[in-house]
From TrEMBL:
Family from the record: Belongs to the ABC transporter superfamily.
PROSITE patterns for the chain: ABC_TRANSPORTER_2 (PS50893)
Originating species: Reyranella soli
SUPFAM superfamilies: P-loop containing nucleoside triphosphate hydrolases
Lineage summary: Bacteria, Pseudomonadati, Pseudomonadota, Alphaproteobacteria, Hyphomicrobiales
Domain ABC transporter: 2-232
Protein name stated in the entry: ABC transporter ATP-binding protein
PANTHER family linked to this entry: HIGH-AFFINITY BRANCHED-CHAIN AMINO ACID TRANSPORT ATP-BINDING PROTEIN, HIGH-AFFINITY BRANCHED-CHAIN AMINO ACID TRANSPORT ATP-BINDING PROTEIN LIVF
GO molecular function: ATP binding; ATP hydrolysis activity; branched-chain amino acid transmembrane transporter activity
Pfam families, A to Z: ABC_tran
Alphabetic keyword roster: Amino-acid transport, ATP-binding, Nucleotide-binding, Transport
A biological process from GO: L-amino acid transport
């Protein structure tokens, strides 16, 4: 589904991603774990085409998209839920979802399917995005992305600033989408429990490089996590 080879990128002349290689299979959930500032968001922005690659290659569903603009990647089925969610605060929940469908060239019927998968949105469809709680906004951001019928979603720190009950709900939603729709996810996170419960494989990113892989079950083990990432599980 996704084949990333020696990918490099950065900001102006500052290199941040220094040659990242990994592959993601159809319906696989891959977690990328790393501290603040290790390049997680920069990697996703490069994969989605918001930042140009300065080296390496990205293939998505067999197509070389290394130089493709974001909208072309989206049309191929690459979805992105950025950190901070970036929903439209002045638009209603429903209109936010319409924007997601329209930007993928899809009609409104996809919206009903997405509401069925995320029933929490049903009673608040008319509410402005900006007045929702952080957790509701995260679910809306996911819903808007799903309205583009993505094959793969790049998820940037979805648990940031969100209460535990909604984190559990997001886990359930994503696992259901994986089973029912063969959704594929690349998730970057610092939340060990979230990444452990969702990921088939967990890669470690340090200073712009993938430095290792840790079995999700080992994320319970403080000493191992500290050794791999320098992060504590508690
Ligand atoms: N727009 C920018 N211009 C210049 N440097 C940037 C920009 N955005 C991020 N950086 C730098 O790139 C590096 C990696 O940042 P990035 O946001 O990818 O890290 P991250 O692992 O996602 O961290 P966090 O968990 O804090 O979001 C950091 O040193 C950061 O200061």
């Amino acid at each position: 589904m996704l084949d990333v080879r020696a990918l490099a990128s950065g900001y102006q002349k500052i290199p941040i991603i220094l040659g990242v290689t990994f592959q993601v299979a159809d319906s696989e959930f891959v977690g990328i774990l790393g501290h603040n500032g290790m390049g997680k968001s920069t990697l996703l922005k490069t994969l989605v085409g918001q930042l140009p690659a300065t080296g390496g290659a990205v293939r998505f569903t067999g197509t070389d998209v290394t130089r493709a603009p974001s909208h072309k990647r989206a049309r191929l089925g690459l979805g992105y839920v950025p950190q901070g969610r970036q929903i439209f605060p002045g638009l209603s929940v429903l209109d936010n979802m319409r924007m997601g469908a329209a930007s993928a060239g899809l009609g409104d019927d996809v919206i009903d399917e997405v509401i069925e998968a995320l029933p929490r949105l049903k009673p608040i469809l008319g509410r402005a995005g900006g007045v929702l709680s952080g957790g509701e906004q995260q679910i809306l951001a996911l819903a808007r992305c799903l309205c583009g019928r993505p094959k793969l979603i790049l998820l940037d720190e979805p648990t940031e600033g969100i209460q535990p009950s909604i984190i559990d709900e997001i886990i359930d939603i994503l696992l259901a989408l994986k089973t029912r729709h063969r959704l594929t996810v690349v998730l970057v996170e610092q939340n060990l429990e979230f990444i452990r419960r969702l990921s088939d494989r967990v890669l470690i990113i340090q200073k712009g490089r993938i430095t290792g892989e840790i079995p999700p079950d080992h994320l319970h083990d403080d000493a191992l996590v500290a050794e791999f990432v320098g992060m504590s599980a508690h």
